[in-house]
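Much of our argument rests on the idea that a fold can be written as discrete symbols. The amino acid sequence and the backbone structure tokens for this protein are reproduced below:

___
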Amino acid sequence: MRLVHCFPLVAAMALAACGGNGAKEEGTDESAPLSQEEVASKANGMIRQTPGQYQTSVELLDFDIPGLSEERAGQLKDMFAKSVADGNTYCLTQEDADKGPEAMLQQLAEADCTFKSLDVNGAKVDADMTCKGAGGADGNFKLNGTMEKESSEMLMEINQSIPNLPGEGKAVMKMKMNSKRVGECS
């Protein structure tokens, strides 16, 4: 469940939100999404990472659940912060590295995600995508950062509808993710 190997936790969150026929989120941008061809063309400029073992760290910068009591929101924030605090370790194989952004695009197409925008300029990546989720758990994911051959730094903003969540059934999160190659795959 990876979006791009440089930020696997983004994929887990984005793809977990994807896959159903959720309702359209209020206040979303009405502009037409990019076609798969447009996304593929822009993604060709993305840097391909070096195969190896990568460690990803995640820092929760902001977490808000509108309409929820401050105490309950604090409990959920702490629980979520603890769940991402240890980050993630993964092996980027030569085969996966060779697939590059094309594999990510295929996963997103299969998962009912669309790009509102994708800008790639050297190591810089700026993306805005929407994923339709099962049971109405639709989400908007904004990514901004850099992706180098052996590291990445991404800022991710998530605005997601979560129907079973108390309060207004929405969560707004902002996270900083750093990923770096730590050696050969083990």
User: Anything to note?
Assistant: Residues 1-29 have pLDDT under 50 and may be disordered. The first helix runs from residue 8 to 17. The chain has one domain: 8-183. The chain has five helices and seven strands.
